[in-house]
Automatic annotation (TrEMBL), chain A:
SUPFAM superfamilies: MetI-like. Part of the binding-protein-dependent transport system for glutamine; probably responsible for the translocation of the substrate across the membrane. The chain crosses the membrane at residues 20-42, 63-82, 88-111, 132-154, 186-206. This is Polar amino acid transport system permease protein. It comes from Nitrospirillum amazonense. The keyword Transport applies. One of its GO terms (molecular function) is transmembrane transporter activity. It comes from the Bacteria. It is found in: Cell inner membrane; Cell membrane. Residues 18-207 form the ABC transmembrane type-1 domain.
Automatic annotation (TrEMBL), chain B:
GO terms for molecular function: ABC-type amino acid transporter activity; ATP binding; ATP hydrolysis activity. Belongs to the ABC transporter superfamily. The keyword rRNA-binding does not apply. This is Amino acid ABC transporter ATP-binding protein (PAAT family). Pfam families: ABC_tran. It comes from Nitrospirillum amazonense. It is a peripheral membrane protein. SUPFAM superfamilies: P-loop containing nucleoside triphosphate hydrolases. It is found in: Cell membrane.
Length: 223, 257
């Protein structure tokens, strides 16, 4: 068996894989953040049917493995609709919805943590619901939620590695290709691992900085 | 005018307000007395729309608070000072005061800022504009709460036991400010006040009228001097009993006439 050496091309492949992983993560996390928070606000204001429906759906998503969801979307949905999905589309859809589910539960807890008394004050002073969310609930819920959100982000970044199994050429898939060509699994997977670690660590550091800024004047609980 | 007409409020099977009627005309200072659990806070919360009514009607200058659109209008006419201050902890003192005037009354920022700073100065908190509520004492927080309400230029000020979370010294501090505010009313056109308080002596000094709530019913509504007259309010056994149980008046700071 011939051991092929590493080439410049391999570096390009890994860089491209890393780009796909990061892009997929950033895009789906952002979409999940928006959808999950919106659902949490609907629930907070007890919007009748829609709120319950969303709650049930997101509960299902949170309590099943991402890999199963991914297979369901990539293999199951096309079989049902007779319409093939591209791997990237299926991956984006699954990860966005999955992230939304986790964001939803974090956001609900954050909104519930904001003191009722100040919310009543804001209502008595005539703030509309939109103004209430924007100026009172939102900023404080975010201060409560930022730590779990940073944790979630780090986790979701790693979860993107699952999309390699449906053929998306992300960092893991790039490692796989490289491994098959060079037959140096230890070197390849160490390198891939370090790249994931570097990305996750950067995310944590950025998140912590953001958290410190947000919490500078966050409610001492129970004020 | 705030007009409360036959208001009924229930929590489950418990009828907390049982046909309460009351008016507060511009310029009046009306105090609600009553023992704990008699429904005083609930009545205030019905007027500012934090509770829905189970019967009767409340209007503020003709605006029916049961109707969401009219409630939004009514809330621009009155402002509430809360027992536990209810400040926004993530905002500076200045922002706490300017938020609603800017967002709800749509007044220009510069003008509202100026008024807020003047109000803060008038209650001795000129240096605290950029502090956060968590950095203030209870008495200071309540003074901010009062400034926040006054910045709405309200026709009606609703105050629910605004000193009961404060120690005697801070109570005196806040009562002195409210006393000034009440005596400044040029009978007829100024900010009307609806007070809930346990400070009977204070109520006696500043109120034009006193009403007494007993188990959800308003049993007496009299001008202040008649309320304390032997053949007026004191003729009611419930009121005599209530007044005799009140602690001696807290030390009051000088209230300028
Ligand atoms: N949200 C609620 N749910 C159920 N019961 C309530 C609620 N709010 C008030 N009550 C009940 O209504 C009654 C009147 O309460 P309220 O707070 O109006 O009394 P209060 O006169 O302000 O008393 P205090 O002097 O102690 O403040 C009490 O028996 C209270 O337990
Ligand atoms: Mg009360």
């Amino acid at each position: 068996m011939r051991h092929a050496g590493f080439t410049w091309h391999d570096g390009a492949l890994l860089a491209q894989g890393l780009g796909v992983s990061l892009g997929l993560f950033a895009g789906t996390f952002l979409i999940g953040l928006v959808l999950g928070s919106a659902a949490a606000v609907l629930r907070h204001f007890r919007v009748p049917t829609l709120g319950t429906l969303l709650h049930t759906g997101l509960e299902l998503l949170r309590n099943s493995p991402v890999l199963v969801q991914l297979f369901l979307v990539f293999f199951g949905v096309p079989a049902l609709l007779h319409q093939p999905l591209t791997p990237v589309f299926a991956a984006g859809l699954t990860l966005s919805a999955n992230t939304a589910a986790f964001v939803y539960f974090i956001a609900v807890a954050g909104l519930d943590a904001v003191g009722r008394d100040q919310v009543e004050a804001a209502r008595a002073f005539g703030l509309s619901r939109v103004q209430l969310v924007r100026h009172i609930l939102g900023p404080q819920a975010l201060a409560f939620a930022v730590a779990p959100l940073v944790g979630l982000a780090v986790n979701q970044l790693q979860v993107t590695s699952l999309v390699s199994v449906i053929g998306v050429v992300d960092l893991t898939k790039a490692g796989d290709i490289l491994n098959l060509r060079t037959l140096r699994p230890f070197a390849v997977w160490t390198l891939v691992g370090v790249l994931y670690f570097a990305a996750a660590k950067t995310l944590t550091l950025l998140g912590n900085r953001w958290e410190r800024r947000l919490r500078a004047h966050a409610a001492p609980l129970g004020l | 005018m705030i007009a409360v007409e036959g208001v009924v409020k229930r929590f489950g099977a418990h009828t907390v307000l049982d046909g309460v009627s009351l008016t507060v005309a511009p310029g009046e200072v009306v105090t609600i007395l009553g023992s704990s659990g008699s429904g005083k806070s609930t009545l205030i919360r019905c007027i500012n729309g934090l509770e829905t009514l189970d019967g009767g009607r409340i209007t503020v200058d003709g605006l029916d608070v049961a109707d969401p659109r009219q409630l939004a209008q009514a809330r621009r006419l009155s402002a509430t000072v809360f027992q536990l201050f209810n400040l926004y902890p993530h905002m500076t003192v200045l922002r706490n005061i300017t938020l609603a005037p800017e967002l709800v009354l749509k007044r220009p920022k510069a003008e509202v800022d100026g008024q807020a700073r003047a109000l803060l100065a008038s209650v001795g908190l000129a240096g605290k504009a950029d502090s956060y509520p968590g950095q203030l004492s209870g008495g200071q927080r309540q003074r901010v709460g009062i400034c926040r309400a006054l910045a709405m230029n309200p026709r009606y000020l609703l105050l629910d036991e605004v000193t009961s979370a404060l120690d005697p010294e801070m109570t005196a501090e806040v009562l002195a400010i409210l006393g000034k505010l009440a005596t400044r009313q040029p009978g007829g056109a100024g900010t009307a006040m609806l007070f809930v308080t346990h400070e009977v002596e204070f109520a006696r000094r500043i109120s034009t009228r006193i009403v007494f709530l007993d188990q959800g019913r308003l049993i007496v509504d009299l001008p202040t001097d008649q309320f304390f007259a032997a053949d007026g309010g004191l003729a009611h056994p419930r009121i005599r009993q209530f007044l005799s149980k009140m602690a001696p008046a807290a030390p009051l700071a000088e209230i300028p006439a």
